[in-house]
Amino acid sequence: MDFEAIPGVGAKTADALTELDGSVDALETGDVATLARAPNISEGRAAAIARAAIRIRHDDPGGFLATDRARELYRDVLTLLQARAVTTYAEKRLKTLYPSATASRIEEVHEFTARAMKREPTAEIQDALAGVEPLSNPRDVTVRDRCLATTDAERYAEARKKIPELPVEVVEDARELAELARGYSTVVALDESFTGVTIEGDVRVEPDALETPAELVPERPLAFFAENRETLLAAVEVHQVAGMDAPLDIEELESALARVTTDGSVTGDDELARLTDAIADLDAGVSMAENVANDRLRDAIRERDVTIEGSDLLSLVEQGAGVDSLLSRELADEYDAAIEAAREHLIDTLSLDAGETEIARQAFPDEPSFPVEHDESVIARLREQLEAEKSRREERHKRDLAQTLADERESAEELVHAALELDVELAVSRFARDFDCVLPEFETGGNGFEIVGGRSPLLDVDFSAVEPVDYGVSGVALLSGVNSGGKTSTLDLVALIVILAQMGLPVPAESVRLGRFEELHYHGKTQGTLDAGAFESTLREFASLADGEAGRLVLVDELESITEPGASAKIIAGILEELGERDVTGVFVSHLADEIRDVADEDVAVDGIEAKGLVDGELVVERSPVKNHLARSTPELIVEKLADGGESGFYERLLEKFE
Ligand SMILES: Nc1ncnc2c1ncn2[C@@H]1O[C@H](COP(=O)(O)OP(=O)(O)OP(=O)(O)O)[C@@H](O)[C@H]1O
Hints:
Blueprint: H1 11-19, H2 23-29, H3 32-35, H4 43-58, H5 68-82, H6 88-95, H7 103-118, H8 123-129, E1 146-150, H9 153-162, E2 168-170, H10 174-183, E3 186-189, E4 203-205, H11 213-216, H12 219-227, H13 229-242, H14 250-259, H15 270-303, H16 310-319, H17 323-330, H18 332-349, H19 354-361, H20 376-434, E5 441-442, E6 449-454, E7 469-473, E8 476-481, H21 487-503, E9 511-514, E10 519-523, H22 532-547, E11 552-557, H23 565-581, E12 585-589, H24 593-599, E13 605-609, E14 611-615, E15 618-621, H25 634-645, H26 650-658
Parallel strand pairs: 1-2, 1-3, 3-4, 5-9, 8-12, 8-13, 10-11, 11-12
Antiparallel strand pairs: 6-7, 6-9, 14-15
Helix pairs in contact: 2-4, 5-21, 6-20, 7-20, 8-13, 12-20, 13-20, 15-18, 15-20, 18-19, 23-24, 25-26
The structure holds adenosine-5'-triphosphate.
Cofactor: a divalent metal cation
Domain DNA mismatch repair proteins mutS family: 474-659
Keywords: ATP-binding, Coiled coil, DNA-binding, Hydrolase, Nucleotide-binding
């Protein structure tokens, strides 16, 4: 958002607001608390900025749109533009464009528009844009196993602000630090004074730790990237399909994104995967290994004829020995082989490394027994070892990835921002293409307007059926014309083009030249005769119009209906004279052009929208007003048509009365 466009916001404040996360949304929603997070912006000031922004969007910041009808057309313009945006961001951003009387403001948007009009909107880009949203900050990352500690109140406040995810504790001395370490797996002491002091437990003394939040809380960048993964990937796609240079290495970002999961944990490391699998498969692996040993032993026993001398058997039985000793006597080699197979099986299926293998080997007893049973305490030890290694590995991996991602964060923000801004540009580009627009030309010091081939997108007919209108006025003119000839539509077209032009946007015409107007006063048609009170207030309104500043554009539609025709003609003539003396451009649509001219003291220019004739009882209209020409009225045309074929001479005589 162009914060500088907000009245009263200087460059410094604008910068601060631009840098603030979520400030555009905050302006849109009037979220004062968020705006007040910007440095040096108080709540009161934030509220004033939010109010001003709302005025900009819904009303009229620079006072350019001076009447309801003018504001209505501005809203119509926004609707047309917004309909061509894909993202909500672009819709909101388009709302920040407004018509201005300030040359620099118009010029600034012009640059944007010129860039936008070169953009080629494609369905592919549209599709990719559909997945892009403004980045969001994961709100509730809290970490409980680590804490920060300091002896200093200021450091405490700073830590709370910079690292809201971690608990921060105030301690008095090293003894309290050590005590703290009993409750946390890691304590990071922020005071220089603890350097070199021996403290029990995992206490790290890092006075600069607050400067590297990603190391203290790797969860932060991980959660940020996990939460925004879809948007980031969509923004990458937008860059690719639109052929834009990305502010970061796309492949690196994609591979990093593939490694964070939505819960902020990490994947994609072979060693980590091996440990995770080994832990998951441990029980099944042990029981399979057991089976391997037992199957082999069973086969060996089955195939073996055991001969034992009676005295030996007797001594064994007398010793109370069981079959096991028989096994060790007779099948020692087979037993060893079976156990070895079991161990190999376990080590292989779990892909254990050297250290783990050493433990795993002890899981099966060297002493023969049948069936073979594993030693559960050894397996528990192995599990512990695997889990410790896994969490160490995970921690390191997380830290590395977090560091990479933290470094990428700014570029990622740029990436998404560029994609969203592209949507704004494409909306303008599509608008320009859909309605055959050109950039208008402002004449310095000029007044009036000159439209060639203007076609309004707001008519009640399909845009392809809209006939082009040429019209130019400098000074004040009356616009006469046949009923339904397009007088109101012409005023709308003029207002629409001027609003777009002064927003800095392209206009739906072949060419447009205009002076930069200070204000747009557009008075729509009044419905019916007004009562005395309403008539008085309308008169007052027009009196103030006559008194106003120079450089205004005044468009008035059929003011005559406010009162009876004779009086109306006098009032309109009076207003025209007043305006004519000032540097005002005006178009007054009226059916009373002739009467007004009669009562006016000065020459009044009258333009006319003419019917070319009647075809099958329908008027065929030349939509472009003819300059300095009072158009014939519809009744006159009908009389003319009847006179052509009439025999009695009545219609001829009637026609003479019109001349
Ligand atoms: N440039 C144009 N191209 C195509 N159709 C047009 C154009 N201008 C006007 N029309 C058609 O003519 C209709 C009447 O136009 P509009 O209301 O502007 O006439 P008007 O002269 O103001 O009429 P009235 O005399 O009743 O005030 C419009 O609703 C529209 O359908």
